[in-house]
TrEMBL record:
Region feature Disordered, mapped onto this chain: 64-117, 296-318
Organism the protein comes from: Halorubrum aquaticum
Matches recorded under HAMAP family: LarC (MF_01074)
Comp. bias (Basic and acidic residues): 71-117
Keywords for the protein's UniProt record, in alphabetical order: Lyase, Nickel
GO molecular function (one): lyase activity
Protein name: Putative nickel insertion protein
Family annotation (InterPro entries): Ni_insertion (IPR002822)
Family of this protein: Belongs to the LarC family.
Length: 477
Protein backbone atom coordinates (compact mmCIF):
# COMPACT_ATOMS: atom_id res chain seq x y z
CA UNK A 1 0.00 0.00 0.00
CA UNK A 2 1.55 3.29 -1.14
CA UNK A 3 1.68 5.50 1.95
CA UNK A 4 2.50 9.15 2.61
CA UNK A 5 3.68 9.90 6.14
CA UNK A 6 3.98 13.43 7.55
CA UNK A 7 6.32 14.02 10.50
CA UNK A 8 5.34 17.31 12.12
CA UNK A 9 7.87 17.64 14.93
CA UNK A 10 7.98 21.39 14.42
CA UNK A 11 4.37 21.80 13.42
CA UNK A 12 2.84 22.55 10.04
CA UNK A 13 1.40 25.39 8.01
CA UNK A 14 -0.29 25.50 4.63
CA UNK A 15 2.81 26.57 2.72
CA UNK A 16 4.96 24.00 4.55
CA UNK A 17 2.55 21.24 3.56
CA UNK A 18 2.61 22.22 -0.11
CA UNK A 19 6.41 22.44 -0.01
CA UNK A 20 6.75 19.04 1.67
CA UNK A 21 4.53 17.41 -0.96
CA UNK A 22 6.61 18.88 -3.78
CA UNK A 23 9.82 17.81 -2.05
CA UNK A 24 8.42 14.27 -1.72
CA UNK A 25 7.80 14.01 -5.46
CA UNK A 26 4.59 15.86 -6.40
CA UNK A 27 4.74 17.88 -9.61
CA UNK A 28 4.34 21.61 -8.96
CA UNK A 29 2.82 22.00 -12.44
CA UNK A 30 -0.47 20.62 -11.09
CA UNK A 31 -0.90 23.96 -9.29
CA UNK A 32 -1.77 25.65 -12.60
CA UNK A 33 -5.58 25.57 -12.04
CA UNK A 34 -5.18 27.71 -8.92
CA UNK A 35 -3.10 30.31 -10.73
CA UNK A 36 -5.70 30.37 -13.51
CA UNK A 37 -8.59 30.96 -11.11
CA UNK A 38 -7.06 33.18 -8.42
CA UNK A 39 -4.85 36.29 -8.72
CA UNK A 40 -1.89 34.45 -7.21
CA UNK A 41 1.33 32.79 -8.32
CA UNK A 42 3.29 30.05 -6.55
CA UNK A 43 7.00 30.61 -6.10
CA UNK A 44 8.88 27.37 -5.37
CA UNK A 45 12.44 27.47 -4.14
CA UNK A 46 14.95 25.95 -1.74
CA UNK A 47 16.50 26.91 1.57
CA UNK A 48 18.57 25.30 4.33
CA UNK A 49 17.16 25.03 7.84
CA UNK A 50 19.66 24.03 10.51
CA UNK A 51 21.63 21.98 8.00
CA UNK A 52 18.60 20.44 6.26
CA UNK A 53 17.91 21.31 2.64
CA UNK A 54 14.21 22.01 2.27
CA UNK A 55 11.70 23.19 -0.31
CA UNK A 56 9.87 26.49 0.08
CA UNK A 57 6.56 27.63 -1.36
CA UNK A 58 5.43 31.25 -1.36
CA UNK A 59 2.07 32.41 -2.66
CA UNK A 60 2.48 35.75 -4.42
CA UNK A 61 -0.35 38.12 -5.20
CA UNK A 62 -0.60 39.16 -8.84
CA UNK A 63 -0.99 42.94 -9.19
CA UNK A 64 -2.03 44.60 -12.43
CA UNK A 65 -0.30 47.93 -12.03
CA UNK A 66 -0.96 50.37 -9.20
CA UNK A 67 1.55 52.90 -7.97
CA UNK A 68 4.72 51.90 -6.19
CA UNK A 69 3.72 53.49 -2.90
CA UNK A 70 0.55 51.47 -2.76
CA UNK A 71 2.43 48.26 -3.49
CA UNK A 72 5.08 49.07 -0.91
CA UNK A 73 2.40 49.55 1.70
CA UNK A 74 1.28 45.97 1.20
CA UNK A 75 4.58 44.25 0.51
CA UNK A 76 6.31 42.08 3.12
CA UNK A 77 10.00 42.26 3.89
CA UNK A 78 11.55 38.83 3.38
CA UNK A 79 14.23 39.44 5.94
CA UNK A 80 12.13 40.80 8.75
CA UNK A 81 9.16 39.17 10.41
CA UNK A 82 5.59 39.88 9.48
CA UNK A 83 2.42 38.84 11.20
CA UNK A 84 -0.85 37.58 9.85
CA UNK A 85 -4.02 36.16 11.30
CA UNK A 86 -5.23 32.63 10.77
CA UNK A 87 -8.92 33.22 11.02
CA UNK A 88 -9.08 34.20 14.64
CA UNK A 89 -7.16 37.40 14.83
CA UNK A 90 -3.79 36.40 16.27
CA UNK A 91 -0.43 37.25 14.81
CA UNK A 92 1.81 34.51 13.49
CA UNK A 93 5.39 35.56 12.74
CA UNK A 94 6.80 33.62 9.84
CA UNK A 95 10.07 35.48 9.33
CA UNK A 96 10.46 34.57 5.61
CA UNK A 97 14.23 34.46 5.69
CA UNK A 98 14.80 31.87 3.00
CA UNK A 99 16.35 32.32 -0.44
CA UNK A 100 14.49 31.13 -3.49
CA UNK A 101 16.27 29.01 -6.03
CA UNK A 102 13.83 29.87 -8.81
CA UNK A 103 10.40 31.15 -9.63
CA UNK A 104 7.97 28.42 -10.53
CA UNK A 105 5.60 30.09 -12.93
CA UNK A 106 4.56 26.97 -14.88
CA UNK A 107 5.30 28.63 -18.20
CA UNK A 108 2.95 31.56 -17.81
CA UNK A 109 3.99 35.08 -18.77
CA UNK A 110 3.71 37.50 -15.88
CA UNK A 111 4.06 41.11 -16.93
CA UNK A 112 2.71 42.58 -13.72
CA UNK A 113 3.94 43.04 -10.18
CA UNK A 114 3.83 40.59 -7.29
CA UNK A 115 3.55 40.95 -3.54
CA UNK A 116 3.25 38.27 -0.92
CA UNK A 117 -0.35 37.16 -0.72
CA UNK A 118 -0.48 36.36 2.98
CA UNK A 119 -3.82 37.75 4.12
CA UNK A 120 -4.18 39.70 0.89
CA UNK A 121 -7.23 39.75 -1.32
CA UNK A 122 -10.85 39.19 -0.37
CA UNK A 123 -11.68 37.87 3.10
CA UNK A 124 -14.53 35.41 2.76
CA UNK A 125 -17.18 33.64 4.77
CA UNK A 126 -17.35 29.85 4.79
CA UNK A 127 -20.08 29.69 2.09
CA UNK A 128 -18.10 32.10 -0.08
CA UNK A 129 -14.99 29.92 0.22
CA UNK A 130 -17.05 26.87 -0.78
CA UNK A 131 -18.32 28.76 -3.83
CA UNK A 132 -14.77 29.68 -4.84
CA UNK A 133 -13.52 26.09 -4.53
CA UNK A 134 -16.50 24.67 -6.40
CA UNK A 135 -16.03 27.20 -9.21
CA UNK A 136 -12.43 26.16 -9.91
CA UNK A 137 -13.30 23.09 -11.99
CA UNK A 138 -11.14 20.78 -9.88
CA UNK A 139 -11.15 16.98 -10.13
CA UNK A 140 -13.84 15.56 -7.84
CA UNK A 141 -11.39 14.03 -5.35
CA UNK A 142 -9.35 17.24 -5.13
CA UNK A 143 -12.43 19.38 -4.60
CA UNK A 144 -13.70 17.01 -1.89
CA UNK A 145 -10.37 17.19 -0.04
CA UNK A 146 -10.25 20.99 -0.15
CA UNK A 147 -13.87 21.32 0.97
CA UNK A 148 -13.31 18.88 3.84
CA UNK A 149 -10.36 20.96 5.06
CA UNK A 150 -12.40 24.15 4.98
CA UNK A 151 -15.35 22.45 6.68
CA UNK A 152 -13.05 21.27 9.48
CA UNK A 153 -11.75 24.80 9.84
CA UNK A 154 -15.22 26.33 9.63
CA UNK A 155 -16.76 24.04 12.22
CA UNK A 156 -13.86 24.62 14.59
CA UNK A 157 -14.22 28.39 14.22
CA UNK A 158 -18.01 28.23 14.58
CA UNK A 159 -17.71 26.14 17.73
CA UNK A 160 -15.12 28.50 19.19
CA UNK A 161 -17.13 31.65 18.55
CA UNK A 162 -20.61 30.18 19.07
CA UNK A 163 -21.75 30.93 15.51
CA UNK A 164 -23.42 28.90 12.79
CA UNK A 165 -21.19 27.37 10.14
CA UNK A 166 -22.88 29.35 7.37
CA UNK A 167 -22.18 32.61 9.22
CA UNK A 168 -18.55 31.88 9.97
CA UNK A 169 -16.13 34.50 8.66
CA UNK A 170 -12.68 33.16 7.80
CA UNK A 171 -10.87 36.52 7.66
CA UNK A 172 -7.25 35.70 6.72
CA UNK A 173 -7.81 31.97 6.13
CA UNK A 174 -10.50 32.86 3.61
CA UNK A 175 -8.09 35.08 1.69
CA UNK A 176 -6.57 34.09 -1.63
CA UNK A 177 -3.32 32.75 -0.16
CA UNK A 178 -5.09 30.39 2.24
CA UNK A 179 -7.35 29.10 -0.53
CA UNK A 180 -4.22 28.61 -2.64
CA UNK A 181 -2.55 26.69 0.22
CA UNK A 182 -5.51 24.34 0.79
CA UNK A 183 -6.39 23.71 -2.84
CA UNK A 184 -2.70 23.49 -3.74
CA UNK A 185 -2.10 20.82 -1.10
CA UNK A 186 -5.12 18.86 -2.37
CA UNK A 187 -3.81 18.99 -5.96
CA UNK A 188 -0.29 17.96 -4.96
CA UNK A 189 -1.56 15.11 -2.81
CA UNK A 190 -3.69 13.85 -5.70
CA UNK A 191 -0.61 13.95 -7.94
CA UNK A 192 1.36 11.78 -5.51
CA UNK A 193 -1.33 9.10 -5.94
CA UNK A 194 -1.03 7.47 -2.53
CA UNK A 195 -3.43 4.99 -0.94
CA UNK A 196 -2.99 6.15 2.63
CA UNK A 197 -1.85 9.30 4.46
CA UNK A 198 -0.73 9.39 8.08
CA UNK A 199 0.74 11.96 10.41
CA UNK A 200 2.69 11.62 13.63
CA UNK A 201 1.69 13.79 16.61
CA UNK A 202 1.91 17.44 15.60
CA UNK A 203 3.97 19.92 17.61
CA UNK A 204 1.97 23.03 18.44
CA UNK A 205 4.72 25.02 20.17
CA UNK A 206 4.03 27.01 23.30
CA UNK A 207 3.69 30.45 24.78
CA UNK A 208 0.87 32.81 23.92
CA UNK A 209 -0.66 34.41 20.85
CA UNK A 210 -2.41 37.70 20.35
CA UNK A 211 -5.99 37.25 19.22
CA UNK A 212 -8.77 39.68 18.40
CA UNK A 213 -10.26 38.96 21.83
CA UNK A 214 -7.02 39.12 23.80
CA UNK A 215 -4.04 36.95 24.64
CA UNK A 216 -4.52 33.18 24.47
CA UNK A 217 -2.17 30.26 25.13
CA UNK A 218 -0.88 28.12 22.27
CA UNK A 219 -2.44 26.12 20.65
CA UNK A 220 -5.14 28.44 19.38
CA UNK A 221 -8.76 27.29 19.90
CA UNK A 222 -9.28 26.61 16.19
CA UNK A 223 -6.32 24.22 16.14
CA UNK A 224 -7.69 22.34 19.14
CA UNK A 225 -11.13 22.16 17.55
CA UNK A 226 -9.73 20.78 14.30
CA UNK A 227 -7.64 18.20 16.14
CA UNK A 228 -10.67 17.07 18.12
CA UNK A 229 -12.80 16.61 15.03
CA UNK A 230 -10.09 15.00 12.92
CA UNK A 231 -8.61 12.74 15.61
CA UNK A 232 -5.16 14.32 15.44
CA UNK A 233 -2.71 14.12 18.34
CA UNK A 234 -1.12 17.37 19.48
CA UNK A 235 2.03 17.75 21.53
CA UNK A 236 3.43 20.88 23.17
CA UNK A 237 6.84 22.35 22.37
CA UNK A 238 9.57 22.09 21.38
CA UNK A 239 9.78 25.90 21.58
CA UNK A 240 7.61 28.74 22.86
CA UNK A 241 6.24 29.80 19.51
CA UNK A 242 3.05 28.97 17.62
CA UNK A 243 4.06 26.14 15.27
CA UNK A 244 0.81 24.60 14.05
CA UNK A 245 -1.47 26.97 12.15
CA UNK A 246 -5.19 26.36 11.67
CA UNK A 247 -4.68 26.05 7.91
CA UNK A 248 -1.95 23.45 8.36
CA UNK A 249 -4.05 21.56 10.90
CA UNK A 250 -7.11 21.63 8.63
CA UNK A 251 -5.20 20.24 5.64
CA UNK A 252 -3.67 17.40 7.65
CA UNK A 253 -6.95 16.76 9.46
CA UNK A 254 -8.73 16.36 6.14
CA UNK A 255 -6.27 13.92 4.59
CA UNK A 256 -4.29 12.12 7.30
CA UNK A 257 -4.84 9.52 9.99
CA UNK A 258 -3.13 10.17 13.30
CA UNK A 259 -0.47 7.60 14.22
CA UNK A 260 1.94 7.45 17.12
CA UNK A 261 5.08 6.95 15.02
CA UNK A 262 6.16 6.66 11.41
CA UNK A 263 4.84 3.35 10.04
CA UNK A 264 6.97 0.66 8.49
CA UNK A 265 7.74 1.83 4.95
CA UNK A 266 9.93 0.84 2.04
CA UNK A 267 10.87 4.42 1.29
CA UNK A 268 10.49 5.65 -2.30
CA UNK A 269 10.87 9.37 -1.71
CA UNK A 270 11.18 11.94 1.03
CA UNK A 271 11.48 15.66 1.39
CA UNK A 272 11.17 18.63 3.70
CA UNK A 273 8.88 21.63 3.47
CA UNK A 274 10.32 24.72 5.15
CA UNK A 275 8.51 27.15 7.38
CA UNK A 276 9.43 30.79 7.25
CA UNK A 277 11.10 31.31 10.61
CA UNK A 278 14.49 29.94 11.62
CA UNK A 279 14.96 28.54 15.14
CA UNK A 280 18.22 28.19 16.99
CA UNK A 281 18.15 24.44 17.63
CA UNK A 282 15.17 23.01 15.76
CA UNK A 283 14.90 22.84 11.95
CA UNK A 284 11.61 24.48 11.03
CA UNK A 285 10.54 21.84 8.50
CA UNK A 286 7.69 19.42 7.86
CA UNK A 287 8.95 16.06 6.66
CA UNK A 288 7.04 13.96 4.12
CA UNK A 289 7.98 10.34 3.40
CA UNK A 290 6.45 8.24 0.61
CA UNK A 291 6.78 4.47 0.31
CA UNK A 292 5.13 1.10 0.25
CA UNK A 293 3.81 0.14 3.65
CA UNK A 294 1.84 -2.64 5.29
CA UNK A 295 -1.48 -1.81 6.86
CA UNK A 296 -0.77 -2.79 10.43
CA UNK A 297 -2.91 -0.50 12.58
CA UNK A 298 -6.20 -1.70 13.87
CA UNK A 299 -8.33 1.40 13.36
CA UNK A 300 -10.06 0.12 10.29
CA UNK A 301 -13.48 -0.58 8.97
CA UNK A 302 -14.48 -4.13 9.80
CA UNK A 303 -15.59 -4.80 6.24
CA UNK A 304 -13.23 -2.80 4.03
CA UNK A 305 -10.02 -2.70 6.04
CA UNK A 306 -9.64 1.06 5.56
CA UNK A 307 -7.53 2.51 8.32
CA UNK A 308 -8.38 5.59 10.38
CA UNK A 309 -7.06 7.23 13.54
CA UNK A 310 -4.41 6.20 16.01
CA UNK A 311 -2.86 2.77 16.14
CA UNK A 312 -4.23 0.60 18.96
CA UNK A 313 -2.35 -1.52 21.43
CA UNK A 314 -1.30 -4.57 19.43
CA UNK A 315 0.14 -6.60 22.27
CA UNK A 316 2.31 -9.56 21.35
CA UNK A 317 -0.23 -12.09 20.06
CA UNK A 318 -3.92 -12.63 19.38
CA UNK A 319 -6.25 -10.01 17.97
CA UNK A 320 -5.70 -6.28 18.37
CA UNK A 321 -7.29 -4.10 21.07
CA UNK A 322 -8.97 -1.09 19.44
CA UNK A 323 -10.82 1.64 21.37
CA UNK A 324 -14.24 2.42 19.93
CA UNK A 325 -17.63 3.93 20.75
CA UNK A 326 -20.92 2.28 19.79
CA UNK A 327 -23.79 4.68 19.12
CA UNK A 328 -27.42 3.59 18.86
CA UNK A 329 -30.81 5.06 18.10
CA UNK A 330 -34.27 3.63 17.45
CA UNK A 331 -36.31 4.91 14.51
CA UNK A 332 -40.00 4.32 13.86
CA UNK A 333 -40.63 6.71 10.97
CA UNK A 334 -37.50 6.71 8.79
CA UNK A 335 -37.96 6.48 5.03
CA UNK A 336 -36.20 3.58 3.28
CA UNK A 337 -34.21 6.06 1.21
CA UNK A 338 -32.85 7.69 4.39
CA UNK A 339 -31.87 4.34 5.88
CA UNK A 340 -30.20 3.32 2.65
CA UNK A 341 -28.07 6.45 2.61
CA UNK A 342 -26.83 6.18 6.19
CA UNK A 343 -23.80 4.02 5.36
CA UNK A 344 -22.23 6.65 3.13
CA UNK A 345 -23.36 9.69 5.08
CA UNK A 346 -22.17 8.43 8.47
CA UNK A 347 -18.90 7.16 7.01
CA UNK A 348 -18.16 10.70 5.88
CA UNK A 349 -18.53 11.82 9.51
CA UNK A 350 -16.18 9.12 10.80
CA UNK A 351 -18.26 5.96 11.22
CA UNK A 352 -16.33 2.70 10.86
CA UNK A 353 -19.38 0.45 10.59
CA UNK A 354 -23.14 1.04 10.31
CA UNK A 355 -25.82 -1.58 10.92
CA UNK A 356 -29.57 -1.13 10.44
CA UNK A 357 -31.65 -3.82 12.15
CA UNK A 358 -35.44 -4.24 11.78
CA UNK A 359 -37.12 -4.31 15.19
CA UNK A 360 -40.45 -3.91 16.96
CA UNK A 361 -40.99 -0.76 18.98
CA UNK A 362 -43.63 0.46 21.42
CA UNK A 363 -47.27 -0.18 20.52
CA UNK A 364 -45.96 -3.04 18.35
CA UNK A 365 -44.91 -0.62 15.64
CA UNK A 366 -42.22 -1.76 13.19
CA UNK A 367 -39.02 0.23 13.39
CA UNK A 368 -35.28 0.06 12.99
CA UNK A 369 -32.30 -0.02 15.36
CA UNK A 370 -29.30 1.84 13.95
CA UNK A 371 -25.94 0.85 15.45
CA UNK A 372 -22.78 2.77 14.57
CA UNK A 373 -19.17 1.93 15.44
CA UNK A 374 -16.72 4.84 15.49
CA UNK A 375 -13.59 6.10 17.22
CA UNK A 376 -14.09 8.06 20.46
CA UNK A 377 -12.77 11.24 18.84
CA UNK A 378 -15.43 11.00 16.12
CA UNK A 379 -18.39 10.18 18.38
CA UNK A 380 -19.82 13.69 18.68
CA UNK A 381 -19.64 14.37 14.94
CA UNK A 382 -21.14 10.99 14.06
CA UNK A 383 -23.96 11.39 16.59
CA UNK A 384 -24.81 14.83 15.20
CA UNK A 385 -24.79 13.54 11.62
CA UNK A 386 -27.03 10.61 12.65
CA UNK A 387 -29.50 12.97 14.30
CA UNK A 388 -29.59 15.34 11.35
CA UNK A 389 -30.02 12.57 8.79
CA UNK A 390 -32.77 10.70 10.60
CA UNK A 391 -34.45 13.34 12.76
CA UNK A 392 -34.03 11.19 15.87
CA UNK A 393 -34.43 13.01 19.17
CA UNK A 394 -31.57 11.18 20.85
CA UNK A 395 -28.50 9.06 20.23
CA UNK A 396 -27.25 6.87 23.04
CA UNK A 397 -23.77 5.51 23.61
CA UNK A 398 -23.86 1.76 24.22
CA UNK A 399 -21.60 -0.04 26.68
CA UNK A 400 -18.91 -1.30 24.29
CA UNK A 401 -15.59 0.50 24.69
CA UNK A 402 -13.28 -1.60 22.55
CA UNK A 403 -13.21 -4.43 20.05
CA UNK A 404 -10.79 -7.21 19.13
CA UNK A 405 -9.75 -7.04 15.50
CA UNK A 406 -7.30 -8.59 13.10
CA UNK A 407 -4.12 -7.14 11.78
CA UNK A 408 -4.91 -6.49 8.13
CA UNK A 409 -2.73 -6.14 5.05
CA UNK A 410 -3.23 -6.45 1.30
CA UNK A 411 -1.46 -8.72 -1.15
CA UNK A 412 -1.83 -8.72 -4.93
CA UNK A 413 -2.64 -11.99 -6.66
CA UNK A 414 -1.57 -12.17 -10.31
CA UNK A 415 -3.77 -14.59 -12.26
CA UNK A 416 -2.69 -15.78 -15.69
CA UNK A 417 -5.80 -16.56 -17.72
CA UNK A 418 -5.48 -17.43 -21.40
CA UNK A 419 -2.02 -15.93 -21.45
CA UNK A 420 -3.10 -12.60 -19.96
CA UNK A 421 -2.17 -11.50 -16.42
CA UNK A 422 -4.87 -10.04 -14.19
CA UNK A 423 -4.29 -8.47 -10.76
CA UNK A 424 -6.69 -8.97 -7.85
CA UNK A 425 -6.17 -7.50 -4.38
CA UNK A 426 -6.51 -9.93 -1.49
CA UNK A 427 -7.02 -8.91 2.13
CA UNK A 428 -5.00 -10.95 4.63
CA UNK A 429 -6.17 -11.24 8.26
CA UNK A 430 -3.69 -12.23 10.94
CA UNK A 431 -3.19 -12.15 14.68
CA UNK A 432 -0.81 -9.60 16.17
CA UNK A 433 2.02 -12.13 16.09
CA UNK A 434 1.56 -12.76 12.37
CA UNK A 435 -0.53 -15.96 12.35
CA UNK A 436 -2.62 -15.69 9.16
CA UNK A 437 -6.10 -17.13 9.57
CA UNK A 438 -8.04 -15.74 6.61
CA UNK A 439 -7.52 -14.47 3.07
CA UNK A 440 -10.30 -12.71 1.21
CA UNK A 441 -10.13 -11.43 -2.36
CA UNK A 442 -11.70 -8.07 -3.20
CA UNK A 443 -15.01 -8.88 -4.84
CA UNK A 444 -15.22 -5.89 -7.19
CA UNK A 445 -11.79 -6.59 -8.67
CA UNK A 446 -12.59 -10.28 -9.05
CA UNK A 447 -15.88 -9.44 -10.73
CA UNK A 448 -14.08 -7.18 -13.20
CA UNK A 449 -11.65 -9.99 -14.08
CA UNK A 450 -14.56 -12.41 -14.41
CA UNK A 451 -16.29 -10.08 -16.85
CA UNK A 452 -13.14 -9.90 -18.99
CA UNK A 453 -12.45 -13.65 -18.97
CA UNK A 454 -15.96 -15.18 -18.89
CA UNK A 455 -15.02 -17.09 -15.75
CA UNK A 456 -17.47 -17.21 -12.82
CA UNK A 457 -16.68 -14.58 -10.22
CA UNK A 458 -16.41 -17.19 -7.49
CA UNK A 459 -13.78 -19.05 -9.54
CA UNK A 460 -11.69 -15.85 -9.83
CA UNK A 461 -12.10 -15.32 -6.08
CA UNK A 462 -10.97 -18.88 -5.40
CA UNK A 463 -7.91 -18.62 -7.63
CA UNK A 464 -6.84 -15.27 -6.16
CA UNK A 465 -7.24 -16.45 -2.58
CA UNK A 466 -5.46 -19.72 -3.28
CA UNK A 467 -2.57 -17.88 -4.94
CA UNK A 468 -2.02 -15.60 -1.96
CA UNK A 469 -2.59 -18.35 0.60
CA UNK A 470 -0.07 -20.63 -1.08
CA UNK A 471 2.41 -17.78 -1.44
CA UNK A 472 2.20 -16.98 2.27
CA UNK A 473 2.64 -20.66 3.05
CA UNK A 474 5.83 -20.67 0.99
CA UNK A 475 7.14 -17.68 2.92
CA UNK A 476 6.29 -15.12 0.24
CA UNK A 477 5.41 -11.51 0.99
Amino acid sequence: MRTLAFDGRTGAAGDMTCAALIAAGADAAVLDPVEERLPVRYEVGETVKNGIRATTVDVLLEEDGGDDADRDAHAHDHESGHGHSHGHGHDHDHGHDHDHGHDHDHGHDHDHDHTHAEGAGIHRTYPEVVDVVESMGLPAAVEATALEAFELLGRAEASTHGTDLEDTAFHEVGADDAVADVVGAALLLDDLDVDRVVTTPLAVGGGEVEMAHGVYPVPAPAVVGIAERAGLTLVGGPIDRELLTPTGAAILGAVAEGVDALPELRVEGAGYGAGDATFERHPNVLRAVVGDGVETTGNDDEETGHVHGHGPDTGSEGLVHDDIVVLETNLDDAAPEVLGGLQESLAEAGARDVTVVPTTMKKSRPGHLVKVVCKPADAAAVAERLARETGTLGVRQAGASHRWIAERSFETATLSIDGVDHAVSVKVAATADGDVYDVSAEYDEAAAVAAETDLPTREVLRRAETSVHDGLGDGGD
